[in-house]
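Practice problem: Type IV pilus assembly protein PilZ
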Amino acid sequence: MFLQTHTPLALGRRTLLRLSGGEVREVMAEATVVWSRPQRQDKGPPGMGLKFEALDSGAQALLRRIISEEQRGVAFGS
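Answer key — structure tokens:
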């Protein structure tokens, strides 16, 4: 997953993300930084690529929903 940020973490760094899916539902997910782009380049905005570690089926479903809503430009939870 790409996470746009002006302060990407270092390659190989593990981090804990809190994914909020509305309706008072949150999922904590551990991820590892697999690539990083610290400054805006021709290839795109600054950010980092994350690989999620051991997501259970509920967390996977929520993540798919968040990404789907984001790609369609729909405000999540509305």
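Discussion: The mean pLDDT is 81. Students who identified this feature from the tokens alone can consider the problem solved.
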